[in-house]
Amino acid sequence: MKFKLDDDRMSDNFFEDTHILGISCSLKNYQFCWHIEKSLQIDFRTSVDLQIPMEKNRRSYSFTVYEYIHPITQKEHFLYSNKHDGEFLLPELQHLDFIWLIRDSFFDESEFMHLQQQIRNIQGVQLVSEVQHDKIKSKDNLQR
After folding, report:
1. Most buried pick, 29, 100, 102, 116, via CB within 10 A?
2. Could you report the per-residue pLDDT of 80-117, keeping only the tens digit for each?
């Protein structure tokens, strides 16, 4: 008997209780994170473990991922850089510079809308919109 991993089910589990924002922004990663910390008190951090490596056309790319876990609510925030050296982490969302994934089992719609508005108020941000899970074809790239 052979066992086979169910990639779709694993993907569904990863995206359970998550909401995703797509952000177009003229700021560099570190500048955007600095503005987020100053305006929203969300202190994104990154590490080598959070980098997403990708091989394409015999070239290596590395996409930065920033993480913040709220100390009280344990709400998880992941900010993915969608672009690196002309390649995209999510090619179907090339118009977005950042993907912000929020994992929260106690989702509050008004808080989510307020977050979107606060991000829009950051100088250099051109677009903030919710991204539906079913619009992401390359979901596996977020789970590496």
Report:
1. 100
2. 999 999 899 999 999 999 999 999 988 889 999 999 99
Instruction: For residue 9, tell me if it sits in a domain.
Output: no
Residue 5 maps to a domain: no
The C-alpha atoms of residue 29 and residue 36 are separated, in whole angstroms, by 11
**This model's pTM is above 0.85:** yes
What gap in Å lies between CA 60 and CA 58, rounded to an integer? 7
Mean pLDDT (the chain, rounded): 90
Domain that holds residue 40: 16-143
What is the Rg, in whole angstroms, of the alpha carbon atoms belonging to the chain?
15
pLDDT tens digits for range 58-76:
899 999 999 999 999 999 9
Q: How far is CA 3 from CA 6, 9, 93, 125, in A?
A: 9, 14, 33, 46
Taking the CA atoms of residue 83, residue 114, residue 140 and residue 12 in that order, the dihedral angle to the nearest 10 degrees is -170
Closest to 21 measured CA to CA, from 87, 140, 119: 119
